[in-house]
Design a protein that fits this description.
The chain is of the alpha+beta class. It is built from 18 helices and ten strands.
């Protein structure tokens, strides 16, 4: 059965649009420089080559819009000449600048943020995250998990009473106690957005891993608590120290090095993952580690030929963010829409290497030999991508009469806006309902008229097995290459000892049989049968 939905089909269209980007991508050769210098603290740090703009390589893989790939150029000659110079030279620090930054704490936790974190950091599907959160709510551990609001009620929310609950926790008790000592008021910070529905998701009572049941329940509960503590905390204060360097045989500043040091943890005391996101250096680092005029020794100078790669497929948390931005579904239904396009065979979930995700298993049934799967990428199946071809889906569809708009996000966004206008009494509900029903009926009629035998036949011919399809996408460079683990195919010492012991026992057993000390199995069975017959 093939189904359509005003939310699930536009959600599928985001995945198909990314697929078309990958299929139309044309790779180009480029060269990446790897230079590392040894600093006075004895550690080695990577240098960023300031590539001329005309030869810079745009980062097409991450699709984050954050500029060029570091140390990469399309000019083989420039890269080769630089490496030859670096092999017989040191680097000189020409200029050092330091800037202080403040990073704001997170707002109160809403449903979309929880679903994103569950998929990105916890490796769970949005539907699973929602199911776990609802069970935690029913058990009284967290507040109602379906909300769009990220701002605490300045009058009705007592932060200090919740903090007291967590002061004795072995996991985050110190952070809760610090907040209780330093916060002079019970009122929460005045940040975030009030959408007029339920308050942000917060912990209602303290619990440990055993109380909530461990596993997925503990991971969701821990994230809710840590986000809550972080939202009440101070800013994270960091210092970015950037040095500009040049090879000792030149005055031209060709390299940069950046160190991020933490001045005040602030909310990162509870939300430790933020330190990795900002690139903070592990351990204590002297702010005067880099000084003008320093001569640093290069410990590595390498060049590698590569090819530009197509963008990666959307991950679940990225799709959730796109749906929220385009107002497709609500906080209560987004997880269901994402689950539907997977369950109905329009999208398959794979890891970063293109291997289908294994279903979750209890720890007792997990095999250590299986590699850890990273990422939850949403790859449209041949059924899903060919279904949108029947609609005539185009990413830039603009004609209001086109059936292609049935799969376009703009229609659902328009409907949500009209519902908001009804709530504000700007338009009549009956008028809006009649207008939308009439629009959908006309588009369905046009779609049915366009489904000729030839088009339906092409739809059927485009279907193929998922394994063949994944191999085809792997050849396009859509996935990361598989890395063979060094332990694969090798036996541990314990396994070798067990096999050796078992072989030795069998050899002893066979030797005794030859001497007549042990009767053969066949003879024993025959003797038992005769005895039983008598």
């Amino acid at each position: 059965m093939i189904s359509y939905g005003p939310c699930q089909t536009p959600a599928l269209s985001f995945c198909v649009d990314r697929l078309r980007e990958i299929e139309s991508f044309v790779p180009e050769r480029y060269w990446k420089i790897d230079l590392q210098a040894k600093l006075p603290d004895g550690n080695s740090y990577s240098l960023k080559w300031r590539v001329p703009t005309d030869d810079a390589v745009i980062d097409t893989r991450s699709k984050r819009g954050d500029g060029n790939e570091e140390g990469a150029t399309f000019s083989h000659q420039s890269a080769r000449e630089l490496i030859e110079r670096a092999k017989c030279a040191d680097v000189i620090v020409k200029k050092v600048t330091s800037t202080s930054e403040s990073i704001k704490p997170p707002n109160g936790l809403n449903t979309v943020a929880l679903l994103e974190a569950g998929s990105k950091a916890m490796g769970m599907s949005p539907k699973t995250v929602m199911s776990v959160a609802e069970k935690l709510y029913s058990a009284g551990f967290i507040s109602y998990p379906r909300t769009e609001t990220t701002r605490y009620d300045p009058n009705g929310f007592d932060a200090r009473s919740l903090l007291r609950e967590h002061c004795s926790s072995a996991e985050w008790g110190k952070s809760a106690s610090y907040l209780l000592r330093t916060r002079k008021t019970s009122k929460p910070p005045n940040r975030g957005k009030d959408c007029g529905d339920h308050p942000p998701i917060t912990p209602l009572k303290a619990a440990n891993r055993g109380n909530v049941g461990g596993g997925a329940a503990w991971r969701v509960y821990e994230y809710v608590v840590r986000n809550f503590l972080g939202s009440l905390h101070n800013d994270l204060q960091i210092t970015r120290t950037k040095a500009v360097l040049a090879l000792s045989d030149s005055d031209e500043a060709e390299f940069e090095i950046e160190l991020v040091t933490v001045d005040s943890l602030g909310f990162a005391d509870a939300c430790r993952w933020v330190l990795r996101d900002v690139g903070a250096v592990q351990g204590k680092v002297d702010k005067d580690l880099l000084q003008e005029g320093q001569r640093l020794k290069l410990v590595k100078a390498g060049i590698e030929e590569k090819k530009t790669m197509p963008p990666r497929f959307l991950q679940e948390h990225e799709l959730i963010r796109l749906m929220d931005t385009n107002r497709i579904g609500t906080d209560a239904s987004m997880a269901v829409h994402v689950s539907n396009i997977v369950d109905r065979g329009y999208v398959m979930l794979v890891d970063e290497t293109g291997v289908a995700l294994r279903p979750p298993r209890p720890p007792s049934q997990r095999k250590n030999s299986l590699p850890r799967q990273i990422g939850r990428y949403m790859v449209p199946t041949p059924l899903g991508s060919n279904l949108l071809k029947l609609f005539g889906h185009e990413e830039d569809a603009t004609e209001i009469e086109s059936p292609a708009l049935l799969s376009h996000p703009s229609i659902r966004r328009q409907m949500e806006q009209e519902v908001k206008e009804i709530a504000m009494e700007n338009i009549e509900k009956d008028f809006c309902l009649e207008k939308n029903l009439d629009w959908f009926e006309k588009r369905y009629t046009e779609l049915e008229r366009s489904l000729t035998y030839e088009r339906v036949g092409k739809f059927g011919q485009g279907l193929r097995s998922s394994n063949d399809y994944l191999r085809y996408l792997a050849k396009l460079g859509a996935f990361e290459p598989k890395i063979n683990t060094p332990n694969k195919g090798k036996q541990t010492k314990q396994t070798q000892q067990k096999k050796h012991t078992g072989t030795k026992k069998r050899q002893t057993y066979n030797h005794k049989r030859k001497k007549g000390n042990i009767k053969g199995r066949t003879k024993n069975k025959a003797h038992k049968a005769q005895t039983k017959f008598r």
